[in-house]
Design a protein that fits this description.
The protein is of the alpha/beta class and about 475 residues long. The chain has 15 helices and 17 strands. The structure holds 6-O-phosphono-beta-D-galactopyranose. 6-O-phosphono-beta-D-galactopyranose binds next to loops.
């Protein structure tokens, strides 16, 4: 060690006691064993069978990172990295192969083992119920388009609370519920690849209703933990302060953030969004009592996923009058010159965005208890950073996390009620249609060596951050 190097690490950014350091993952992206253990098919299994070409390098969801087999070893690695908490999702089709009716006992037992193993390792399980993975049998009756699916979801949620609620104290109804609506019904990046604004609105509305019904079930059963929702909040920045640019950003914000944030946290829909849907003739079909149910069943805890901002400007060209109706009828995307990019994923990196979200939640959403439930950097070709000792030196990921954490720290100093930080993700996993193109993990997964795990430099760094409660 050189003389100039400090002997003791200086902690410049210290976080509140008990801050939750950990990571997040989802069932379809990690478990593999897609056709094993009695699991039913979900939309990913089905879509891949139909159109394998839609997936990077033709890699599908059948094996992914094999967590179904290796969860014990993986949880030991989490422990080694000093994780306090870990969020995973339950695969609806593993628990209910048809989405409803018969419970698959083998699937139920698997999640029991995962939960017990986490607890034995001193890691708190955060359990999410829906992460983009509609059981195929329910998609065949319309998925979230069909109101019956809302009730099937509520009974699935209730089953989970009964099975695991004695040990799981942090529940989440949905992860990024806007994604199934925009991916599946507007922008063609999720099954069923429909482009239909009216259906997208109905899907989103049903997801919101299903959140309220699950919250209702949790409270009715006397759940003694917290129930929340995880939203991807993308702050909408206008190109300029010109009123037309500002208006464009407010509308984008209403469509993409407030659409879920307002009903989940405040129990009501933003007026601006309701006005637009009414005026354009796209209000969803609702039933009597729905709005009251939503009003009375808001979440206790908000998970915030943050990757990138959304920059917009006033429209420059009017859309063709016959073109399908899209949110982009009200704004254009704006490519800010000189923006910092993660070119592998094509996403802008704007660290201050995380602070802006937290301050918005503090000021406009009653400072609800929240945490960063996902943040991370997907990088292609990380093997080139592997040293002779076998470790991937992902310094770019360490600085990505640090720069975001500095802003989280500042928000805390200004009173934001943020309780933790979870990286996306623990170990490299299957990124939907990007499959294994971009790697996000603290731990690498070598697909050529039967999924061999090795801890990356960021994993060791994060371990110290968790131990020191700061950096
Ligand atoms: C979020 C999802 C995750 C994860 C992550 C990274 O939207 O909740 O499931 O995949 O984004 O994005 P991607 O995998 O598309 O690169």
């Amino acid at each position: 060690m050189s003389k100039t190097e400090p002997q003791l690490e200086q902690i410049q950014y210290r976080f509140p006691n008990g801050f939750w350091w950990g990571s997040a993952a989802s069932a379809t992206q990690t478990e593999g064993a897609a056709a094993e253990g009695g699991k039913g098919k979900n939309i990913w299994d089905h879509w891949y069978e139909k159109e394998p070409n839609r997936f990077f390098d033709g890699v599908g969801p059948e094996k992914t990172s094999r967590f179904y087999e290796t969860y014990r070893e993986d949880i030991q690695l989490m422990k080694e990295l000093g994780h306090h908490s870990f969020r995973f999702s339950i695969s609806w089709a593993r628990l209910f192969p048809d989405g409803k009716g018969r419970l698959n006992k083998e699937g139920a037992a698997f999640y029991n083992r995962v939960i017990d193993e986490l607890l034995a390792a001193g890691i708190e399980p955060f359990v999410n119920l829906y992460h983009f993975d509609m059981p195929l049998a329910l998609q065949q009756i319309g998925g979230w388009e069909n109101r019956q699916v809302v009730d099937h979801f509520a009974s699935y949620a209730e089953t989970c609370f009964r099975l695991y609620g004695d040990r799981v104290k942090k529940w989440f109804t949905h992860n990024e519920p806007i994604v199934p609506a925009e991916g599946g019904y507007l922008y063609d990046f999720h099954y069923p690849n429909i482009v239909d604004f009216q259906k997208a609105v109905q899907v989103a509305y049903h997801e919101i209703l299903s959140n309220a019904k699950a919250v209702e079930a949790y409270r009715r059963l006397g759940g003694d933990g917290k129930i929340g929702i995880i939203l991807n909040l993308t702050p909408s920045y206008p190109r300029s302060q010109h009123p037309a640019d500002v208006r464009a950003s407010e509308i984008a914000d209403a469509f993409f953030n407030r659409s879920f944030l307002d009903p989940a946290v405040k129990g009501e829909f933003p007026q601006l969004l309701t006005d637009i849907l009414k005026e354009e003739g796209y209000l969803p079909v609702m039933e009597e009592g729905d709005l009251e149910l939503i009003k009375n069943h808001t979440v206790d805890l908000l998970g915030i996923n943050y990757y990138q901002p959304r920059r917009v400007k006033a429209k420059e060209h009017l859309p063709h009058p016959d073109a399908p109706f899209m949110p982009e009828r009200f704004f254009d995307h704006y490519e800010m010159p000189g923006r910092k990019m993660n070119r592998h994923r094509g996403w802008e990196i704007y660290e201050k965005g995380i602070y802006d979200i937290l301050i918005n939640v503090k000021e406009n959403y009653g400072n609800i208890e929240c945490f960063i439930s996902e943040n991370g950097m997907g990088v292609e070709g990380e093997e080139r950073f592997r040293g002779e000792d076998g470790m991937i030196r992902d310094d770019y990921r360490i600085s990505f996390i640090k720069e975001h954490l500095k802003w989280v720290h500042r928000a805390i100093q200004e009173g934001a009620n943020v309780k933790g930080y979870h990286l996306w993700t623990f170990m490299d996993n299957w990124s939907w249609t990007n499959a294994y193109k971009n790697r996000y993990g603290f731990v690498s997964v070598n697909l050529d060596k039967n999924g061999e795990r090795t801890i990356k430099k960021s994993g060791y760094w994060f371990k110290k951050v968790a131990e020191n409660n700061g950096f």
